[in-house]
């Protein structure tokens, strides 16, 4: 099957980048499984950018702290929203319920209860500092 993202077959990735790309994809697969690899490689037309993106994700993933206690199915937690880029809608803590847990306690899936509706987020990381959007934390982490 032809990769539609490559302009033509003569475009080959830089030979110095390819081993790093393979190593980064393998490490990402060990850390996050096939979904992590698929998400990271969604824009793979520029291999140098992909290597940079994967490296950033891997270093971020290894720095995710472990929660004070592991989340369990049906636990009430907080989800930190991203907020809007123009700050019209600031980032905020939202009520959430754990819908699935991972073998690694730093990752959980949640159902987020927003004032205007619900949404589901799969495999999000724990952030006890309550700084990063798209993460979960315990209520006591933010003083609520």
What does this structure look like?
It is a single chain. This protein has 144 residues and is of the alpha+beta class. It has a 5-stranded antiparallel β-sheet with strand order 4-3-2-1-5, with no helix packed on it. Helix 1 packs across helix 2 (47-62). It folds into 2 domains: 17-62; 76-141. The chain has 2 helices and 5 strands. A hairpin with a 2-residue loop joins strand 3 (107-114) and strand 4 (117-125). It is 28% helix and 24% strand.
> What is the share of helical residues?
25-40%
Strand order of the largest sheet: 4-3-2-1-5
Strand residue content: 15-25%
Main sheet?
5 strands, antiparallel
What is the typical, i.e. mean, pLDDT? Answer: 76
| Number of alpha- plus pi-helical segments | 2
Total tally of structural domains:
2
- Uncertain stretches: 1-14
Shape: globular
Rounded to the nearest angstrom, the distance between the terminal CA atoms is 52 Å
Number of strands: 5
| SSE topology string | HHEEEEE
Give Rg in angstroms. 18 Å
State the secondary-structure class. alpha+beta
Topology overview:
Blueprint lengths: L16 H24 L6 H16 L13 E5 L12 E9 L5 E8 L2 E9 L9 E3 L7
Antiparallel strand pairs: 1-2, 1-5, 2-3, 3-4
Give a quick summary of the entry.
The chain is an alpha+beta fold and 144 residues long. It has helices at residues 17-40, 47-62; strands at 76-80, 93-101, 107-114, 117-125, 135-137. 28% of the residues lie in helices and 24% in strands.
Structure characteristics:
144 residues, globular, 28% helix, 2 domains, 5-stranded antiparallel sheet, 2 helices, alpha+beta, disordered N terminus
């Amino acid at each position: 099957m032809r990769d539609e993202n490559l302009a033509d077959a003569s475009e080959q990735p830089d030979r110095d980048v390819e081993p790093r790309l393979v190593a980064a994809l393998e490490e990402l697969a060990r850390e996050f499984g096939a979904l992590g690899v698929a998400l990271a490689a969604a824009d793979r037309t520029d291999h140098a950018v992909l290597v940079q993106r994967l490296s950033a994700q891997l270093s971020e993933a290894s720095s995710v702290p472990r929660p004070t206690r592991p989340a369990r199915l049906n636990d009430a937690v907080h989800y930190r929203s991203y907020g809007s880029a123009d700050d019209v809608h600031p980032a905020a803590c939202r009520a959430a319920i754990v819908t699935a847990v991972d073998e690694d306690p730093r990752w959980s899936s949640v159902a987020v209860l927003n004032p205007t509706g619900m949404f589901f987020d799969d495999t999000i990381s724990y952030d006890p500092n309550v700084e990063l959007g798209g993460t979960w934390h315990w209520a006591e982490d933010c003083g609520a």
